[in-house]
Structure formats: structure tokens, C-alpha cells
Amino acid sequence: MQNYLDILQKSALFADVDKRDIEKMLGCLLANIKTYNKNEYIVKASHTLLDVGIVLEGRINIIKEDYWGNRSILTTLKTGELFGEAFACAKTQYNIFSVVAAEKSKIMFINYEKITSPCQFACNFHTKIIKNMLKLMAQKNIMLTTKIEHLTQKTTRDKILSYLSTEAIKQNSHNFTIPFNRQELADFLSVDRSAMSAELSRMHKDGLIDYNKNKFTLNKEADF
């Protein structure tokens, strides 16, 4: 696990915690690492979650699948990001989301109860990760609110523009890269892929955007 201390230190959960302290904590937190191939389920909906997952390598999708197998993507997570904390905290017996590897990925699982229960030594750095966890959960709520804003737009074009505008602001540039391929973006925005691709072409023709695969440019001078 020493190979991943740099990644863990950069993660939001271990922010401002020294690498030596992180290494000491991993045993206490019952940390274990598993590897998953592309498209392999990491967590399936309906399974009870007791652990928090940290992406050490690769990229994963948090998805929602309905009874008929239709899929929507809640979010995509990359190296250093966490998942599962809300359901592990709530101790719900029914998890409504699945977690799937978007590419070959390595995940560290940490027991949630061990995170939120200070150890017998009442270490200062353990108190710090409890505060970090609370901050993380608040940030996830903000992220969900932002996605709701995208999905409540009336048209496919408006959904695309809402998402791309948010990414441009977040990355502080009119040239930016998104974490989705076309199918993943369609799933994220809950739109048909063919309809979305056609709309992207029209938006390019109208001078609103330029794009190449997952790289986009917004035209600030365009007439919306």
C-alpha cells in the first residue's frame, strides 16, 4: 500500500494528513485493495455498502439502472476520488446505485465505521479525516444539485450547454476536456445518444462550440 501514499495524501479524505500518519492509519481502517477490469461491476445496486471506496488507478462510473436495463450515469470518478460514503453512513440495506469500472481500475476499500469512530489513541489526524469526510459529503450534495440543474433544462441543447458551461467555469477556460465519451455523456444527461450527437453537430454548425472527441471549445461571442 506504500505505493499509493502519494495518491491517498492528495485525496479529499486524507487532505492535510502526513503520509506517515496515513500509513499508520491504513491498518486501523481495515484498508484493502482490489482490481477490476473495464465494465466490471465494483458494487451492484441492492448490495449493502459498509465501505468507502477510493480510486487508486483508472476511472469508474456511478450509474443508475432501471428495471429494463436503461442506464444513466450519476458521475464519473478518477484517481483519488471517493464513492459509497453516503450509503455506508446511512447504513441503508438497499443501495440504488451501481459502481462500474470505466477502464481497468484499482480500488482501496476502507471501513466507514473505522473512519468515523476515533481510535483508542484519539489521534489528531483521525479527527482530521472525520472533518474531511463531512466536507466531502457536503461537496457531493452540491454536485448533485448542479446535475439536477442540467437535467431540468427543457431541451437537449439546453442540457448540453448547461453542462459544458459548468465545465468551462470549473476549469476556468473556454477550452476544456470532459471525462465522458459520447455514450457516457448521453447517459449522464439522460438523453438519447443519437439525438445528442445530432444536436452537437448542429451546435457546431451554429458556431456555438467546437469539439474533438472529449475536448470542447465554447464560443463566447456566439449568439445563443
UniProtKB/TrEMBL annotation:
Q: Which domain of life is it from?
A: Bacteria
InterPro entries attached to this UniProt entry: cNMP-bd_dom, cNMP-bd_dom_sf, HTH_CRP, RmlC-like_jellyroll, WH_DNA-bd_sf
Question: Does the record carry Transcription regulation as a key word?
Answer: yes
Quote the SUPFAM superfamilies the UniProt record gives. Answer: cAMP-binding domain-like, Winged helix' DNA-binding domain
Every copy of the HTH crp-type domain together lies at 154-222
Q: Where is the Cyclic nucleotide-binding domain?
A: 13-113
Keywords in alphabetical order, please: DNA-binding, Transcription, Transcription regulation
This one is known as: DNA-binding transcriptional dual regulator Crp
Species the sequence originates in: Megamonas hypermegale
